[in-house]
Amino acid sequence: MSINTLGKKIGGQTYLHIDALSALDETRRNDWEQAIARAIDASRCCQFNVVRRQADGRIALLHYADFFDIPFPSLHELWRFDPGTGEVGYRTYAGSLNPPILHRKELLLPPEHPRREEYAALTAAAESIGLFDDTTRIGYQRQWLALVRERGYRIEGHQLVPLGNVEGEADAPDEAGQGGDQIQFGGQLHDHWAAARQRTAMVRYGFSAPIQSLARHGFLDGSQRLFDYGCGRGDDLRGLQENGIPAQGWDPYYAPDQPIEAADIVNLGFVINVIEDFDERIEALTRAWSLAERLLVVSVMIGERQHAGGGERFRDGLLTQRGTFQKYFTPAEIRQFLTSALDEEPITVAPGVLYVFRDKDAEQRFLLERSRGRRNRLRAPSAPRPREATATRRDRRAERYAEHSDALERLWAQWLTLGRQPHKEEVAELLPLTEAFGTLGKALRFIEQHQRDLLGDQQGDQQSEQLGEWQGDDYIDALLEQAAEARRADLEVYFALRQFERRRPYKHLESGLQRDIKAFFGDYPSAQQAGLERLRAIADPEAIAAACQEAAEHGLGWLEPAQSLQLHASLVDQLPALLRVYVGAGAMLYGEVQQADLIKIHIASGKLTLLIFDAFDGQALPRLRERVKIKLREQDIDTFDYVEPFTPPYLFWKSRYINEEHPDYPQQLAFDEQLAALGLFDITGYGPAPEVVDETLARHRWEVQGLSLRRSQNPPALDDPCGRFLRFRDLIECGETQAATGLANLPKEPQSWNALLELTEQVLDPVIDWFGMIRLTYGFCSPELAKQIPGRIDPKRDQHAAHERNRIGNLICPRLGAAVDFIIEDEDMREVAQWIVTETPFDRLYFFGKDKPLHVSHGPGHSRQIVLMQPGPSGRLVPKVVSSEAFVQST
Which pLDDT tens digit goes with each residue over 450-509? Predict the structure, then answer.
């Protein structure tokens, strides 16, 4: 390997391991070392083992954990530095469940490295089974491991090992659909119009919004009975029963004979909004409340629409064209209605969905768990090598652990979730554990010691990366400390949001909450004070800015410094505690903010914006449907719908707002980079209007298909633009033979049209822009036209046939691409050809003379081949291939 080709090159980026710097020649080594020194000084990088340098001078210092021992090491930290602007950036992947990974690591190392051949053999094996064929699936750990398994292999050390005959896992069911039942109750509006309430009952194929909210918050585990008061057609009930959930229901129209009975949970789903009589509304609400032993769920239609569905005003709602009544509540109005009718404080959990708890212990547990981060996402160390058994006692301990491993591991997981040792009342498997170990305390000490022994003096696996270079006992201590800190932060969020909402104090505290308070704060006033301090901090722009910076460094959203942090709603639970309070305060006013797609945290203004898109997860360019601005200081909400006459805008750079853990992230990132690289329009800020985007993409024969950007497969009209100066007709009806014969000469393959456009955009447009208009003498050549030009052409090599195929389906010209011949009047065609060589990405160029037409092609080969056609002894033209340097310098 030449030292000038050392490193892994991707596009304009070069990757080098720090061990390879010494193998560079002195000039290059000094250049790299100076660039690295500047980057370290600017970014305050503490450790790295790989350097990434771009052609424009930008540099990144990367730390891959266990670079030499892991076959495809994952990225742990990254520091960026742009010497041109002085801009620095940092990103940690320590807590990521799907970090970027490194392939072909042998290319980063010096030629004499002792393990280079081992790594190269792994790369060759991966290539042989096609693992690198789809580049959108290889950059991140989750997609990479799934791809390896799809190919029928597993990774063992630095080898790919075929899988045996093992059963695959069943696919998880799709998440239930959105929506809510709307049911009917009898009654008269006036003498000439009766509310046909049964017409509002929807036929649904997924669970309603209130039922989905109960599932999201863990109420539908089968331990509690549910009664649907006003169940409509019963679709929710049928689905719940099929899932083993004890559920019954009653409806005055569809199920009038079913008994009305009390239950743990009562669902009043989209009932009171279709009752036109206020007293009947109160009666339905209070009747449902009387049946709820623990929780009442109330759902209504939210909005301020005056004439929905072409309806007319009636009382405090609308009469619709379908003969139904509809009352649209504002968020404040429905909260006030429930509070005044039930003398209870409702909790908004989603737009139009509110919980009213009769069981205050259950309410406290709900509010606490609702504020929780993602402790459940901590991963246990993956199979580190155990120490060798040195005594019989260790064997007995191992046997004891094996006998009770399931219960012990669940106990350890509960310890990490609570951030403190579980109390005996909180342990579901208390009896078998006490029978096996005597007391719960002994069981806790046993599992803790087992975890320490399991790690021994070896570095923990992936979790140790999250905690630094901890080892053995230090690792376990740090893990427990991290769990405690996370739980304390959850509690501070809980107490902060309670005080923001100004809820009445509970007469007594739920027992688990009492233990939390004692363990983390000492007493109740201290817990309240800690929450109050968190709450006050959301009014501090500097504190919010610092928390947003921390979130961005962990891959949680896109940071506009001093302005905002914007992120996908699924990432909210991973935010720093202060930002969870900020977002939680918005949820208190609006409902479950995760119902939105994107959340924008304004750093200085005390506002929270929710952005809702059409098909966010299924489209690379989703369109904004609704924007909700929550003003925390004023405790007010503004809603903006992007309906006529407004045109819903596209969301650009969607990959910025999700991260590598989103299943579509690799494809979305590839799409965003491809769209930006086209340079068709400016997509900074909000980008161009949708109609500009659509027209520009269509003009350049691009179309968006889901998460992909691909060339159009539809033929254009002959007079459609082909580049900035020409039409497709110009490249098809330009030859002497075509003009003489009048043949249509139309491409049949969509790729041929696209190849003609690419040739024009990449070569001909720049030439015309620099020299003026060209005169085409020969362009696209169909098989029918080629038959009329015998002896003077070479269709298998000249690329004039583009991507066309012959009668048996084979490519006429395997080189693909497209070609034209052209001349510019009053120009030296050598100078034109030399300019093409230095300024355009041509494929092949044939030069016939200063005053002769020039043949040029553009294609996937990018061979940049230059051929001089010179007269031979017999007078016939003889081809001679020359280098770019020689041709540019010729006269």
Answer: 888 876 534 434 444 444 444 556 778 888 999 999 999 999 999 999 888 877 777 788
Which residues is 650 bridged to in the sheet? 623
Q: What is the pTM of this model?
A: 0.76
Radius of gyration of the chain (CA): 34
How does pLDDT run across 276-295, given as a tens digit for each residue? 888 899 999 999 999 999 99
Instruction: Compare 301 and 806 and report the one with higher pLDDT.
Output: 806
Domain-located, residue 773: yes
Indicate whether 304 and 261 sit together in one domain: yes
Alpha carbon distance 499, 335 (integer Å)? 17
| 138 contact partners, CB below 8 Å, separation of at least 6 | 103, 131, 132, 144, 147
Does the pLDDT value for residue 799 go beyond 60? yes
**Which of 58-67, 247-256, 347-356, 823-832 bottoms out in mean pLDDT, i.e. has the lowest?**
347-356
Look up the domain containing 617 and give its range.
554-709
Query: Would the pLDDT of 435 be above 60?
Result: yes
Q: Is the dihedral of CA 778, 781, 787, 788 positive or negative?
A: negative
Choose the final residue of a domain: 709, 733, 751: 709
The pLDDT value given to residue 304: 55
Residues 741 and 799 in one domain: yes
User: Tens digit of pLDDT for each residue in 208-241?
Assistant: 878 878 887 889 988 899 999 999 888 889 889 9
Can you tell me the distance from the alpha carbon of 311 to that of 303, in angstroms, rounded to the nearest whole number? 15
Verify that 505 and 635 share a domain, yes or no: no
| Closest alpha carbon to 94 in 72, 70, 78, 71 | 78
Same-domain check for residues 697 and 743: no
pLDDT category of residue 182 using cuts at 50, 70 and 90? very low
CA-nearest of 839, 833, 819 to 866 is 833
Residue 598's Cβ-side half-sphere holds a number of Cα atoms within 13 Å equal to 30
Nearest to 749 by CA among 683, 827, 689, 802: 802
Decide if 194 is inside a domain: no
452, two tokens: 């320490």
Task: Scan for tokens 């081949």, then name that residue.
Answer: 865
pLDDT value of residue 395: 63
Burial label for 450, CB within 10 Å (0-12, 13-18, 19+), is middle
Question: Under a CB-based contact definition with an 8 Å cutoff, are residues 153 and 161 in contact?
Answer: yes
Query: Average pLDDT over the chain, rounded to whole?
Result: 85
Statement to judge: residues 697 and 763 lie in one domain = no
Contact 355, 347 (CB under 8 A): yes
Whole-number pLDDT of residue 613: 93
Do 737 and 809 lie in a common domain? yes
Measured distance CA(36)–CA(21) in Å, rounded: 11
Which pLDDT belongs to residue 457? 39
Asked whether residue 532 falls in the same domain as residue 560, the answer is: no
Q: What's 385-453 look like in SS3?
A: CCCCCCCHHHHHHHHHHHHCHHHHHHHHHHHHHHCCCCCHHHCCCHHHHHHHHCCHHHHHHHHHHHHHH
With respect to residue 223, please indicate whether it lies within any of the assigned structural domains: yes
Could you tell me if residue 368 is inside a domain? no
Query: Which among 161, 189, 222 is the end of a domain?
Result: 161
d(CA 360, CA 378): 30
Residues 515 and 561 in one domain: no
**Which helix (H) or strand (E) covers residue 636, if one does?**
strand 636-641
In contact, 858 and 763? CB cutoff 8 Å? yes
Q: How many domains does the chain have?
A: 5
Nearest Cα neighbor of 296 from 233, 214, 198 is 214
Which residue type does 842 have? F
Q: How far is CA 396 from CA 147, 433, 547, 866, in A?
A: 41, 17, 49, 78
Tokens representing 618?
């299924």
Per DSSP, the three-state class of 487 is helix
* Mean pLDDT computed over 401-430: 92
